[in-house]
Amino acid sequence: MKTIHEQHFLSGKYIIVAGGGIGGLTFCVALQRFLENNNQEINPPPHIVVYERELSLDDIGREGYSLSIRSDPLSGGMQILQKLDLLDQILGESNPGTYFTVFNNDFTPLIEFQSPPVEGLSQSTASIARSKLREILHKNISPSIAVHWNHGIESVEELENGQVIVTLMNGHQEKCDLLIAADGSNSKGRRAIRSQNELRFAGAVSIAARTQPLEKLPPPIDKTWGSVLGVNGNFLFVAPSDQRSALWSVSYLSDKPSEPRPAGTMSEEEIEQVLSEAHQRLVSFGEPMPTLFKKTLRSSVSVFNAKDMEPFRNHGSVIFIGDAQHAMSPFAGNGANMAMMDGYKLAEQMILAKHLSTAVQAYDDLCIPRSINAIKMSHRTIAIGHSQGIWKYMWVTMLKIVAYFFGFNSKSEQ
Q1: Which residue positions does the secretion signal occupy (predicted)?
Q2: Distance (Å, rounded) from C-alpha 203 to C-alpha 192?
Q3: Partner of 156 for a Cys bridge, out of 95, 192, 287, 316, CB 3.0 to 4.6 A?
Q4: pLDDT at 408 > cutoff 60
Q5: Cβ pair 388, 340 in contact under 8 A
Q6: Are 22 and 133 in contact (CB under 8 A)?
Q7: Contacting residues for 83 by C-beta, under 8 A, at least 6 apart
Q8: Reading across the β-sheet that carries 225-229, which strands appear in turn?
Q9: 348 half-sphere exposure, CB direction, 13 A CA radius
Q10: What 3 state SS string does 134-183 have?
Q11: CA–CA gap between residue 199 and residue 167 (Å, rounded)
């Protein structure tokens, strides 16, 4: 094995990764993979620690979420998993269905987005529970990397010598040489040192939940997942959250954000109020939505606002990735892909570059344009999904054009 000369800027450095989610764990896996694949080692190696706010790997939090992993030019998540030698593991745990559908409110398909085959990939799109993806990433990080659960980062301070002081939620402080801030859209590190970069309301409010385990997934979500164009401005998303349960989310446009209500924080009376509103908004949707609604797991009900944030360039010893750098609303349908791409590309540039500043600049050059495009796409999705009357069908026509432009195989209802 070839040893990278001791002057490599990562040699002997103490690196803290804030966030044990998709982006942070991908960075950890990718850093080790690049060294192994190039038959290299850094001597002495960097010491890496991950601090995660959630209580454990199994914490319920967002773990009912279903993620779409894609191979199209805007995403590239499938290719990243293949490069990390994780694709087969992911496909073994993936949900039913290999393509995305836009439905009418009676669940007749309007457009089926089937990504064209990609050389070297057994399939070009997959859906997987966030919990399963994170579990696989966690299982594949180096044994030398410690992951500390229930240890969220509360604040960050950059010192004049380039080091970083990190204060944890229990009050403990640590000094590190480099902080990878992958702690999501509400990043405490960003609030501390990049307060000018704030989340903005994207104009839509969502009520979401997942079902109890079902005997079997009802059609059509036993074969696909997707968005449902409704009436009266209500927009629905449905997808398997695992092999036997499903996720649903109904959204509507609003001039101002609603009070966020995370799952597990509401009283029974508040849950009933939210479900009553959801039922009114879902009344125009045909099966399988009535069945899924009846099987809703009450403890999973949540209300959230679509928010995003334009990406910014990194500088100094705190490097932001994923939603901490370019927050995306769920309407982007691309957050997991972007997080994996960020973690992978940052690790790649850090191994290849001779200086931290060079690595970070190269990473930002790759990250910022694609995240800007993804955020723009999310705004179009919000406009399409909540459109009414003739505008709805004009947007469907535009979707077909977009599908053709990006190389999707688009099958429309005859």
Answers
A1: none
A2: 26
A3: 192
A4: no
A5: no
A6: yes
A7: 33, 344
A8: 302-308, 200-210, 246-253, 235-240, 225-229, 100-103, 109-114, 409-412
A9: 14
A10: HHHHHHCCCCCCEEECCCCEEEEEECCCCCEEEEECCCCEEEECEEEECC
A11: 23
Which residues are within 8 A (CB) of 206 and not within 5 positions of it... i.e. 6 or more apart? 249, 250, 251, 303, 304, 305, 306, 330
Q: Which two tokens stand for residue 93?
A: 């745990």
Question: For residues 256 and 307, is the Cβ–Cβ distance under 8 A?
Answer: no
CA distance linking residue 125 with residue 337, whole number of Å: 11
List of domains in the chain: 2-97+128-198+310-377 (3.50.50.60), 201-307+384-412 (3.30.9.30)
Interatomic CA distance for residues 219 and 317, integer angstroms: 50
112 and 224 in contact (C-beta within 8 Å)? yes
CA–CA separation, 274 and 278 (whole Å): 6
Q: What is the pLDDT of residue 399?
A: 64
CA 124, 108, 277: angle at the middle one, nearest 5? 100
CA Rg, the chain, in Å? Answer: 21
One-letter amino acid of 150: N
Helix, strand, or coil (residue 345): helix
- Single out the residue of 239, 190, 235 nearest to residue 380, CA to CA: 235
Residue type, 57: L
Whether pLDDT at 37 is above 80: no
Q: How many CB atoms within 10 Å of residue 279?
A: 14
DSSP 8-state secondary structure symbol assigned to residue 219: T
The candidate with the shortest Cα–Cα distance to 85, out of 33, 123, 151, is 33
Residues in Cβ contact with 309 at an 8 Å cutoff, skipping those fewer than 6 apart: 185, 197, 198, 199, 200, 326, 327
Query: Using one digit for the tens of pLDDT, what is the confidence trace for 300-331?
Result: 999 999 999 999 999 999 999 999 999 999 99
**CB within 8 Å of 327: residues ≥ 6 apart:** 184, 185, 199, 307, 308, 309
CB atoms within 10 A of CB 146: 11
- The answer to whether 153 touches 191, Cβ cutoff 8 Å, is no
| Surface-to-core class of residue 339, CB atoms within 10 Å of its CB (0-12 exposed, 13-18 middle, 19+ buried) | buried
Task: State if pTM tops 0.70.
Answer: yes
The crossing angle, in degrees rounded to 10, of helices 356-385 and 390-405 is 140
* CA 36 – CA 413 distance, rounded (Å): 48
Note the helical H segments in 22-146.
22-37, 77-83, 87-92, 130-139
CB atoms within 10 A of CB 266: 18
